[in-house]
């Protein structure tokens, strides 16, 4: 990723020693004063010796109790340590995946890991986008190297491994290692490594390649690339071999020496990870993986580098365009909400009007019924009145007749009876 | 987010002490860039000084220096050269400002220079803000050498004005030009006068950073006492005491460029190139550029935002975060509005429904009333009929009785008449 120097520049000879060959030293001095930072993520099933390997690599005892297999999901635990070696200060963060591979359903195992890695990228991106930012003193928490621990089955990669590595290979530098490799014989190991490598290739998993573009380290790096994945053994116990105390694991049938290159690839791992390529791992994380994350994130938010006419946007234009678009969206949403309310009001009004109409109809019907009833009563009344009138007439006529009869007959008894009756 | 760190002691050599070497190696591979601006009236020996500093014929017959070209207005010109030393490549850009201070009316002659510096910042900001970031060539001005004419009296108003306007945009290193026209005493006086005026006007010239190293600090203090540096440059090599040196030949002797007793050239060269080149770049990147960037980005967000927001305070948020906050605020506002509208709606609906209910109740009541009325009438009618029927029945009964009586009486009469009854 070096800048193509010398574009439009002419090379001129120097007539003596100017002194800018001290620039690398000036840069180095500044970075030593500033201190270094490195973050390692260990991914692997419980019990593969992740913590032990870290302790062995860094010659110290890091935090942590061995975890049980009963974790309900995968969580990531990170610890940061300050280490110093001669005048070099290193802020080392070790992140462990707790509970990886322990669940019955491992479909979502990789998710917490991806989320964690993305969160670190996001934090850096947020800092980078701030108006007032302090990138120079920012504690970089992005994962620079991911050691992927492969179980020493001797057969092939587990599907969990393939799935996880495929999800991680575009986000982090993956260095696959065969853990607890003292459980595999040398011949089996060679076959195992070939199987693993071919499975990775056929599944399109991009693991980290030690860089071969710098002549001073190209050779060693390319040799080491052919030894991947490294078969490691970790141990913090020391055993006396000859007249030296060495880190080893003692078995009844022999002693596995961690730093013996015939026994395992520990030395190779340490050499590559720490002594030769630590800075490159950090650089690749920043210039490749982080840039990819950033690009995706910005594109997701709708940022582009060129407008529809393919002219490059200036920062101001980009932000303003974004802002206008976003304000427009908000206006639209507001308008939509208002419209929705207007609609609801309309609908409700219609509903209520309908109910009112029904009510009036109901009462109109009732009124009509009532009118009918009333008419019936009126008719009854009228018929009663008619009967009454008829009766009255009859009565009157009868009385008249009786009066006449009385006058004719003159019966006082009748009169008396009548009076009595009255 | 403060990260808790733990100190750990290493029980053996790990190897990250090689990190400085790794950084060294990578920086050499990348190569270095440096942009130096020279400002001063014509004839002050700027080109000669550059040639002397970099021991090269940057300006030669083929590529003449700015003084040899007559300019009416202030121009800003760039020359790029690629120089190599000890395996280290440096892309050096010299920015010239011919015409500066040469006019009769020099008002605003600094403006093209300020514009140039800002445009370089803007280029960097734009390339840093792109979605697809590739190489980010750094053409920002890392240092500005300001040439003061050796009048021996003090700073000219133009000198003060220029430095005041530029000290917060670029690292300003004032130099006394053509120092071989001043005697040591005159020079000493002149320097004191200049530093006094610089302090008086609160001009912030480039300051050497403090280090933890005592030795270094002592050297830094020695340099500070000699500011501003009085320099002499030369394109010619003269033999002095069988040594070939750069110098200026006078009838009375040779003024040697690299002689510490004659002038401060070596101090300048050592400081500018051999010890503080990286620091000049860091200051430009971490301070001057960041100032430009935060001002620029604050203006972007300001443009779209109400005036009553963020009064005078530069937020530490990025414009994106600002937009995000605005969006959240808007969402809250909308929710509130929605709730209010909902409340009003509910209330109105309730009112209407209540009215309808009341109306229904009223109609029902009236209906009931009418029904009761009618029933009363009905009952009354029934009663009346009953009474009537009773009356009629009674009357009819009575009539029959009367009739019978009359019949009986008649029969009696008849019989009487017939002589049957005595």
Automatic annotation (TrEMBL), chain A:
Residues 316-394 form a coiled coil. Pfam families: Septin (PF00735). Keywords: Coiled coil, GTP-binding, Nucleotide-binding. It comes from the Eukaryota. InterPro entries: G_SEPTIN_dom (IPR030379), P-loop_NTPase (IPR027417), Septin (IPR016491). SUPFAM superfamilies: P-loop containing nucleoside triphosphate hydrolases. Residues 403-422 are annotated as: Disordered. Residues 34-300 form the Septin-type G domain. GO terms for molecular function: GTP binding. Belongs to the TRAFAC class TrmE-Era-EngA-EngB-Septin-like GTPase superfamily. Septin GTPase family. PANTHER family: SEPTIN (PTHR18884). This is Septin. The gene is septin6.
């Amino acid at each position: 990723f070096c800048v193509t120097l010398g574009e439009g520049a002419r090379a001129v000879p120097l007539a003596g020693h100017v002194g800018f060959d001290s620039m690398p030293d000036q840069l180095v001095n500044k970075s030593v004063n500033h201190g270094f930072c490195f973050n390692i993520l260990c991914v692997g099933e419980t019990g593969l010796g992740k913590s032990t390997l870290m302790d062995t690599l860094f010659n110290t005892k890091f935090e942590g109790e061995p975890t049980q297999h009963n974790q309900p999901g995968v969580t990531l635990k990170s610890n940061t340590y300050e280490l110093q070696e001669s005048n070099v200060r290193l802020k080392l963060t070790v992140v462990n995946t707790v509970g990886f591979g322990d669940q019955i359903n491992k479909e979502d195992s990789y998710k917490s890991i991806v989320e964690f890695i993305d969160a670190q990228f996001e934090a850096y991106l947020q800092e980078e986008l701030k108006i007032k930012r302090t990138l120079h003193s920012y504690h970089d928490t992005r994962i620079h190297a991911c050691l992927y621990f492969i179980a020493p089955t001797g057969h092939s990669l587990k599907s969990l491994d393939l799935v996880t590595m495929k999800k991680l290979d575009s986000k982090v530098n993956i260095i696959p290692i065969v853990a607890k490799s003292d459980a595999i014989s040398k011949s089996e190991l060679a076959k195992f490594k070939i199987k693993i490598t071919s499975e990775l290739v056929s599944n399109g998993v991009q693991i980290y390649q030690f860089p071969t573009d710098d002549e001073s380290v190209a050779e060693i790096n390319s040799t080491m690339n052919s030894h991947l994945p490294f078969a490691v053994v970790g141990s913090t116990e020391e055993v006396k071999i000859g007249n030296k105390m060495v880190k080893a694991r003692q078995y009844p049938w022999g002693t596995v020496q961690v730093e013996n290159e015939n026994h395992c690839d520990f030395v190779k791992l340490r050499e590559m990870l720490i002594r030769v390529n630590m800075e490159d791992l950090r650089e690749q994380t920043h210039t490749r993986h982080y840039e990819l994350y950033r690009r995706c994130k910005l594109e997701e938010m709708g940022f582009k580098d060129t407008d529809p006419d393919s002219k490059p946007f200036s920062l101001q234009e980009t932000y303003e365009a974004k802002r206008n678009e976003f304000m427009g969206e908000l206006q639209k949403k507001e308008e939509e909400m208002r419209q929705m309310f207007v609609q609801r009001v309309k609908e409700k009004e219609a509903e209520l009007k309908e109910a009112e109409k029904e009510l009036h109809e109901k009462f109109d019907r009732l009124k009509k019924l009532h009118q009918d009833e009333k008419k019936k009563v009126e008719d009854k009344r009228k018929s009663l009145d008619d009967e009454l009138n008829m009766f009255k007439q009859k009565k009157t006529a009868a009385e008249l007749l009786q009066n006449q009869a009385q006058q004719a007959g003159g019966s006082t008894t009748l009169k008396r009876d009548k009076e009595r009756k009255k | 987010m403060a990260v808790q760190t733990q100190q750990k002691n290493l029980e053996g050599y790990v190897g990250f002490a090689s990190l400085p070497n790794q950084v060294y190696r990578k920086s050499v591979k990348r190569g270095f860039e440096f942009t130096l601006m020279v400002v001063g009236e014509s004839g002050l020996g700027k080109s000669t000084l550059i040639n002397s500093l970099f021991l090269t014929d940057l300006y030669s017959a083929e590529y003449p220096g700015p003084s040899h070209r007559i300019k009416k207005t202030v121009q800003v010109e760039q020359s790029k050269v690629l120089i190599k030393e000890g395996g280290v490549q440096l892309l050096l850009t010299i920015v010239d400002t011919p015409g500066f201070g040469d006019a009769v009316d020099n008002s605003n002659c600094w403006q093209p220079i300020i514009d140039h510096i800002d445009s370089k910042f803007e280029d960097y900001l734009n390339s840093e803000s792109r979605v697809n970031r590739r190489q980010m060539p750094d053409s920002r001005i890392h240092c500005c050498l300001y040439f003061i004419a050796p009048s021996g009296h003090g700073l000219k108003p133009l000198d003060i004005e220029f430095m005041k306007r530029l000290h917060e945009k670029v690292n300003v290193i004032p130099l006394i030009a053509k120092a071989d026209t001043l005697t040591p005493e005159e020079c000493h006086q002149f320097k004191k006068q200049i530093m006094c005026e610089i302090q008086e006007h609160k001009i912030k010239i480039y300051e050497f950073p403090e280090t933890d190293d005592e030795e270094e600090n002592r050297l830094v203090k020695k340099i500070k006492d000699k500011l501003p540096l009085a320099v002499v440059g030369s394109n010619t090599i003269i033999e002095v005491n069988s040594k070939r040196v750069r110098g200026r030949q006078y009838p009375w002797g040779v003024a040697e460029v690299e002689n510490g007793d004659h002038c401060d050239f070596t101090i300048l060269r050592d400081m500018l190139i051999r010890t503080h080149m990286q620091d000049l770049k860091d200051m430009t990147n971490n301070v001057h550029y960041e100032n430009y960037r935060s001002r620029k980005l604050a203006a972007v967000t300001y443009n779209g935002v109400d005036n009553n927001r963020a009064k005078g305070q530069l937020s530490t948020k990025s414009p994106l975060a600002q937009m995000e906050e605005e969006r959240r605020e808007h969402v809250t506002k909308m929710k509130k509005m929605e709730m209010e509208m909902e409340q009003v709606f509910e209330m109105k609906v309730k009112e209407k429904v209540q009215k309808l209910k009341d109306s229904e109740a009223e109609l029902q009541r009236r209906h009931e009333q009418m029904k009761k009325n009618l029933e009363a009438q009905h009952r009354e009618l029934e009663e009346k009929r009953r009474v009537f029927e009773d009356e009629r029945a009674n009357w009819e009964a009575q009539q029959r009785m009367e009739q019978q009586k009359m019949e009986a009486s008649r029969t009696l009469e008849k019989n009487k008449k017939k002589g049957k009854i005595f």
